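Annex B. Sample input.
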Amino acid sequence: MEIFGIPMQAMMSQLLLGLVNGSFYAMLSLGLAVIFGLLNVINFSHGALYMMGAFLAWMGLSYFELNYWVMLAAAPLLVGLFGIVIEKTMLRWLYKLDHLYGLLLTFGITLLLEGVFRSFYGVSGQAYPVPDALSGATDLGFMILPNYRGWVVAASLTVCLATWYVIEKTKLGAYLRAGTENPKLVEAFGINVPLMVTLTYGFGVALAGFAGVLAAPIINVTPLMGSNLIIVVFAVVVIGGMGSIMGSIVTGLMLGVIEGLTRVFYPEGSEVVVFVVMVIVLLLRPAGLFGKEK
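Annex B, continued. Sample output.
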């Protein structure tokens, strides 16, 4: 069976690839949206922390024989703790300053992390095996679905939707939002706002670490893997609306699928289609698809 002269299986394979990429876009842009929406910080180091999560998974297996499932829990926790150290020692002094200061600081952290990992491991990349439980593929009739890629999509969607629910629909989320808008009032109710802010930043960067572990078996683990992705992720955040949680999730998945379809019909445009969409959206709706007009 063919669609517009393209075999059905080839079409579905590219759609799956786009959905997998969209899952990473959604999770990384979600972390950025959480940090910006609740802390008002443009975290340019997000890509480097994504890379750090992937490297921690590889190091856990190579040096300590810790399997994928252990590192899927441990690596985001370690990245989150590293983020907490950054927030408590550096970022918290910049909250009342212009966004540019936070952007420059996190860009410097990116260069530092990439330089450290590059000096130890070079740029050629390290291979990370797919866990045995998720190896192989499933025949769906219209396409062959690699089990690990299906797991990536399912895990990403679960984490993204759970994060949205906690922030938008629970009392904890209400405290977080109120703490950023009126910290004095929230503190009057006995809530430790500085601690809440620190943990929020730690959680945001832990999402990047989680995405890094998910990515490790799919692509080579390299010090530059975050730099190759972060610009697209920032475009996703802008299109969805700066600080919009649901906007990041929906837009990330949507743009991944659009990118996959572009590879089928016009491969030369697949590298720039996200930025073309960003330009169109900003011209028609400067606040983004889910952003609030001021």
